[in-house]
Write a structure and sequence with these properties.
alpha+beta; 4-stranded antiparallel sheet
Length: 189
């Protein structure tokens, strides 16, 4: 078996109507090309986008889905026999995992509000706590706005994924800020 074939993947969007407005699936198109004038066997291997796990794969055709610990990514793998000069397009369909659930944002807002409200009486007028609370709410507002603006249909798959990872960073910062506020509240009691 020789690995002389180019494998690339591109994205194709398939919209579906499910329980929430951002629901969709992403079809990863994987091309295997035989540039030779004779048939050839090859192993087609393509890494799936960051964030996709084996449980997120909806349809895999004849691919096997495996995990690469070193790269921390799943990949699709399949043996194929290509005819001379053949271009074979294979597909893997995955869930759109690049959305922060609205429930997660609501929970963070509630946690931030609870941490802010549970300040000791001595810290009630604290400008730092008020600023931190406002900053957390602003970050969550940005996540909601960014998600509405960067659906796959509006922004395309790659931009949708990039913006999701910005949202993940914002969510992590808010979680860290909530912990900080709780810690400060404990120290002032």
């Amino acid at each position: 078996m020789r690995k002389i074939f180019l494998t690339t993947f591109s994205f194709l969007l398939i919209m579906s109507v499910v329980s929430y407005a951002y629901a969709s699936e992403v079809v990863l198109k994987i091309r295997a090309v035989n540039p030779l004038k004779k048939p050839a066997d090859t192993l087609v291997k393509e890494y799936l986008p960051r964030g996709v796990t084996a449980k997120d794969v909806i349809s895999k055709g004849k691919f096997r889905i495996e995990y690469d610990k070193a790269k921390d990514l799943c990949y699709a793998e399949q043996k194929v026999t290509l005819k001379p000069k053949e271009v074979l397009v294979l597909q893997v369909e995955v869930k759109d995992v690049w959305v922060v659930p609205a429930k997660k944002i609501e929970t963070l807002r509630a946690d931030a509000k609870k941490a802010f409200a549970s300040r000791p009486a001595a810290a009630k007028g604290s400008k730092a706590a008020e600023d931190l609370f406002a900053q957390m709410n602003k970050a969550l507002d940005k996540v909601e706005a960014r998600q509405a603006q960067n659906t796959i249909a509006k922004a395309g798959v790659e931009s949708h994924m990039e913006e999701y990872w910005k949202d993940v960073d914002s969510i992590k910062q808010v979680e860290s800020d909530i912990k900080l506020m709780k810690l400060l509240n404990e120290k002032k009691k």
